[in-house]
Amino acid sequence: MANKAKTNFLDKPMFRLILTISSLLLASLILVFSALTIIDITNSSYENAPKYLVWIFILSGLMSIVMFLKSRTKINLIKAIVLLAFNVVLGIVVLFAKSNPFLFSLTTSLYCVNIIVGCVFNLIQNHKVRSIIFNALIITFAIAMGIGIFVSPMENVDQIQNIILVECIFIAVVSFIEAASIAFSQLKFNVLFKVVVNTFSLEILFGLLTMIVCFSMVFMKIEPNINTFPEALWYCFAVVTTIGFGDIVAVTPIGRVLSVILGIYGLVVVAVITSIVVNFYNETAGKKDKKELKEISEEDKKDK
Question: Of 14, 11, 10, 53, whose CA–CA distance to 30 is shortest?
Answer without folding.
Answer: 53
